[in-house]
Amino acid sequence: FHIGEREEKCIIEDLPSDTLVVGNYKVQRWDIHKHDFLESAPGLGMFVTVSTPSGEVLLSKLYGSQGTFSFTSYLSGEHIICFQSNSTRLLAIAGSKLRIHLDIRVGEHFFDESAVQAKEKVDEVNVRLEHLIEQIQHVSKEQDYEREREEKFRKTSEETNSNILWWAIAQTLILICVGIWQIKSLRDFFIAKKLV
């Protein structure tokens, strides 16, 4: 995605609780002379801020022009991930655009291949099996989270339907009462005028 040099851009990730999130990014700056995005200057960096659904700041850190950030969600819900450059240029001349290449991986537990090769005792099949088990646990957490959301939505729908039913019953009773009152009023009117 593209952002201005002094602009803040946020994305929302809907995450279950206890989920590892790893993000890799790379920033490129627009070159006016070459009309292309080039590698950014060494001094340019990015502030990465992550907020929980309750508004608590989970991560706030300055990284370089490319980097990796990670955090673990402890609440389920929409987490807000914001990016802003550390540019100190004035707003008037800071009109250049930045391109951010972002890769966010949710729920994956990465293992270091070089560390695996260094440990001769560890069997590669066991490592792959552990990785698959972690992925299964992540899928299970995702399903539990979706089940919770569906249950909350169903409960809200049932409450709404119940409220609509009671409102319809109240309207019907009011109409019946108004009809009876009108009939009684007309009857009394005709009796008073001696038309009946």
UniProtKB/TrEMBL annotation:
GO terms for cellular component: endoplasmic reticulum membrane. Keywords: Coiled coil, Endoplasmic reticulum, Membrane, Signal, Transmembrane, Transmembrane helix. The chain crosses the membrane at residues 164-183. Its main location: endoplasmic reticulum. Residues 115-142 form a coiled coil. SMART domains: EMP24_GP25L (SM01190). Residues 8-106 form the GOLD domain. InterPro entries: Emp24-like (IPR015720), GOLD_dom (IPR009038). PROSITE patterns: GOLD. It comes from the Eukaryota. It is found in: Endoplasmic reticulum membrane; Membrane. It is a single-pass type I membrane protein. Signal peptide: none annotated. Belongs to the EMP24/GP25L family. This is TMD11 protein.
